[in-house]
Amino acid sequence: MAESEPDPLWLGGAESYDVVVLGTGLKECIISGLLSVDGLKVLHIDRNNYYGGASASLQLSQLWEKFRPGQPVPKELGPNRDYNIDLVPKFMMANGKLVRVLLHTDVVKYLEFKAVDGSYVLSKGKIHKVPASDMEALKSPLMGLFEKRRAMGFFKYVQSYNPEDPKTHNRYDLERMTMAALYKEYGLNEETVEFVGHSLALHRDDAYLSQPALPTVMKIKLYHDSLSRYDGLNSPYLYPRYGLGELPQSFARLSAVYGGVYMLSKPDVEVMYDESGVATGVKSEGQVAKSKFVVGDPGYFPGKVRLASKVVRAIAFLSHPIPDTNNAHSVQIILPQKQIGRHSDMYVFCSSYAHNVCANGKWLAFVSTTVETANPEAELAPGLALLGPIDDKFIEVQDVYEPIADGRSDKCFISKGYDATSHFETTVEDVLEMYKRITGKDLDLTAKDPSAVEA
């Protein structure tokens, strides 16, 4: 094609799509894939020349170029090609919504998963394994003997609870009863409540205690169901080989199979609006692509988003597993807010060469939390202290934006930024909420059994 010819995908402004998706972050790629499967004509654009956006996976050379441009990569870290370093690392629940989305779309066929070795929690200055079985629970130092008996009664109730079967409700109306009241019914002490709420239900703070109990009970059930999904799992989490960068590319491949068009390296792309402020398409390099609505990450919608929080994250290179994790190749450690004198939890994520994300004999550890002070790096100290000797590390503070409106009136459906959690539950909840706002319907994720995903 001669340089003077317009890109045929734009056709001088005559080309029209059902939706234009801006940004190739994981959330945008999932939405693009889902809408393509639904039969919509999708144009997907990114200002970058790679997939993943804020949730990309980088090789060593790309990471150094991002944080230390012009500086050489230390040779002792190993070959560049061996690294796939997640900028926003997260594990997925084996029975969770992301796994169900992968099954719903058949994207799972593009991926290979490996179970995560362990889930841990900080308690009284030490990290303890979150029990993965009844026997582990009985041996765990997280609870005393009498507290374990009370907790077993609570867990038995939660595991048997079925929202559709009143016989399992034990006369509790969990849509009205607060979670604090349910804990009280079983006599659980403050330490157990903290462990359950933050390590099993994965709440980021204690606001849930004064809210209806049903969502938390279902979150605890999800943890248990994920843990029991496969025989011998030591945690409820899965993680793809070669890192999370495989996910957005797999959803992009899905969209392309259904006719979706992808265009990278469009740094000047902007949303177009009519006189009433409703999105009508996008413009790039003087060409316009019309659409019925636009979807994208917050970076493409100035004036339509607000700063919700800031996340500080450390990326650390290790030559050993994290101490006191039974030599785990992959692990999550949750530091509950009260244990470290904070308002929000801190998360440690660790993966290794066993997941094909770094060179042989190396581990990648990430420490993340919501910024609460004017010195974000200092806030990471409790998590970094758990890692042992660190070969090298990078610190990044990221702004987390959220949309001001739901998108129904201006046809701009905007995702939220990525929070500090080291699991995908909040990420997928945002995607499913966006899908419902766009289509007016819930995504049915019940058709396929998550056990079809091998780990």
TrEMBL record:
Any one GO CC term of the record: cytoplasm
Origin: domain of life: Eukaryota
Lineage of origin: Eukaryota, Viridiplantae, Chlorophyta, core chlorophytes, Chlorophyceae
One Pfam family, short name: GDI
Membership in a protein family: Belongs to the Rab GDI family.
Parts of the chain that traverse the membrane: none
Gene Ontology biological process terms in this record: protein transport; small GTPase-mediated signal transduction; vesicle-mediated transport
Protein name (Swiss-Prot/TrEMBL): Guanosine nucleotide diphosphate dissociation inhibitor
Molecular-function GO terms, alphabetical: Rab GDP-dissociation inhibitor activity
